[in-house]
Design goal:
This protein is an alpha+beta fold. The protein has three helices and seven strands; from the N terminus they run E-E-E-E-E-E-E-H-H-H. A hairpin with a 4-residue loop joins strand 5 and strand 6. Helix 1 runs antiparallel to helix 2, helix 1 runs parallel beside helix 3 and helix 2 runs antiparallel to helix 3.
């Protein structure tokens, strides 16, 4: 997803929930009119269009509710405790992925797969940081990514573990 403030092909992901509620997932970065925001990363908003105005039409799914004034509201792969959003009631898990230029990837999967998806994401990120996607281990990285895209997160993690 491109940062909301810069525009681009994909700016937001809408995840329908039961009734008329839904999640909006945005990539918020310190660019454009968002330069003054206190945090960057994946912002998740729960929207309830039926709510009476002023009573929670939009709710921020705060990644760190203990921080003041939503100062750590975004989900980020590089921040322990803020790298996974899970809503078991609605069977949704959201994992922020690695950045590629100004875009930031996001994975939406079932709640039960959230922890495995996060582990696979972190393992792939370690491989990527080691430069394995360019060297002799490129095929292993490709295999990890292939398993990941098929939502086989356990296999993806195992392949990455073997390469590390």
């Amino acid at each position: 997803m491109f940062p909301l403030a810069t525009g681009g092909e994909t700016l937001v992901i809408k995840i329908p929930l039961p009734g008329d509620k839904y999640y909006l997932v945005e990539n918020r970065q310190a660019v454009g009119y968002d330069k003054v925001q206190p945090d960057v990363g994946i912002l998740i908003l729960k929207v309830n269009p039926s709510a009476v105005e002023g009573t929670g039409t939009v709710q921020v799914m705060d990644a760190d509710p203990g921080s003041a004034n939503l100062s750590h509201a975004t989900f980020r792969l590089d921040q322990p405790g803020r790298e996974l959003f899970v809503d078991r009631q609605n069977n949704v898990a959201i994992v922020p992925l690695w950045s590629q230029g100004e875009t930031l990837g996001v994975l939406v999967t079932a709640a039960a797969k959230g922890a495995d998806a996060l582990q696979a994401t972190q393992m792939i990120r370690k491989l990527w940081k080691q430069g394995a996607h360019k060297g002799a281990k490129k095929q292993i990285v490709d295999d990890c990514l292939s398993a990941y895209r098929q939502y086989d997160f356990k296999r993806s993690s195992e392949l990455a573990r073997q390469a590390l």
